[in-house]
Amino acid sequence: MFNMKVKTILVSQPEPKVENSPYFDLQNKHKVKVDFRPFIHVEGVSAKDVRAQKIDLNNYSAIILTSKNSVDHFFRVAEEMRYKIPEDLRYFCQSEAVAFYLQKYVVYRKRKIYVGQKDFVDMSTLFKKYKDEKFLLPSSDQLNADIPQTLNNLKLDWTPGTFYKTVMSDLSDLKDVYYDVLAFFSPTGIKSLFKNFPDFEQNNTRIAVFGSTTQKEALEHGLRVDILAPTPETPSMTMALEKYVAEANKGK
Q1: Separation between Cα atoms, residue 43 and residue 168, nearest integer Å
Q2: What is the pTM of this model?
Q3: What's the pLDDT tens digit per position in 146-160?
Q4: How does pLDDT run across 12-71, given as a tens digit for each residue?
Q5: β-strands 90-93, 112-115: how paired?
Q6: CA distance linking residue 180 with residue 226, whole number of Å
């Protein structure tokens, strides 16, 4: 599909809040129009529904936080349940970004906070040190398979809790809008495309996907994947788009 120039890209995520986003560099360098629109969004689960999962926050001595959403929704549910968070509660954060975000709710120097490298499995050494804790994992209804696998392999006493759900967004206003490239980051994003536009035909639209599960979902829906990330050469979506656009627009 390199014979067709790229003029417009729709990224199925919220617009970056930072001015130096690589998406804006891509837009300026190659004179392409980049729009942002989340195809999915997160909705909180009520405290009543969390209780229905037989979860009593008083029963846990440690909380596992894998994302900013998990931080927000743990503290939201705690407030709804009128749960007074003890000072000796341990927080296990998957990454520095999550740990940094935790400061929105707790005073760092007074809390027990443990930080992983990046991937969930990297936290294994931390969990081994505190294997006698009772862990709660507040997460979405779509939990990565490696998370329960890691926790079970370590034989930890842990409980998963659905504190928020990933929901498909209403995209009906895009019905008559055409883009040269659509960029997806999750299988649910692909599902959202077909839920909103059951008759979607790819034709000359290039599909960009991030991750093997997103690629699998795209192929199962009969889509042709033109741009794939991460790869050793293009570890990010913006790098993959940049490489493709540079090639497609060369000399045009």
Answers
A1: 10
A2: 0.77
A3: 899 999 999 999 999
A4: 999 988 888 999 999 999 999 999 999 999 999 999 999 999 999 999 999 999 999 999
A5: parallel
A6: 11
Domain 43-166, CATH 3.20.20.70 — does that match? Answer: no
Torsions phi, psi of 244, nearest 5?
Answer: -65, -45
Return d(Cα 217, Cα 187) in angstroms, integer: 5
What are φ and ψ of residue 40, in 5° steps?
A: -135, 155
What's the CATH architecture for 8-39+170-248?
Answer: 3-Layer(aba) Sandwich (3.40)
- The residue type of 56 is D
Across residues 177-201, what is the average pLDDT?
94
Q: What ranges do the domains of the chain cover?
A: 8-39+170-248, 43-166
Single-letter residue type at 186? S
Q: Could you give the CA distance from residue 204 to residue 4 in angstroms, rounded to a whole number?
A: 8
Same fold, 8-39+170-248 and 43-166: yes
Residue 172: phi and psi, rounded to 5, are -60, -25
- Distance between CA atoms of 162 and 137, rounded to whole angstroms? 8
pLDDT in tens, 153-181: 999 999 999 999 999 999 999 888 899 99
> If we measure between CA atoms, which residue out of 191, 185, 181, 192 comes closest to residue 209?
185
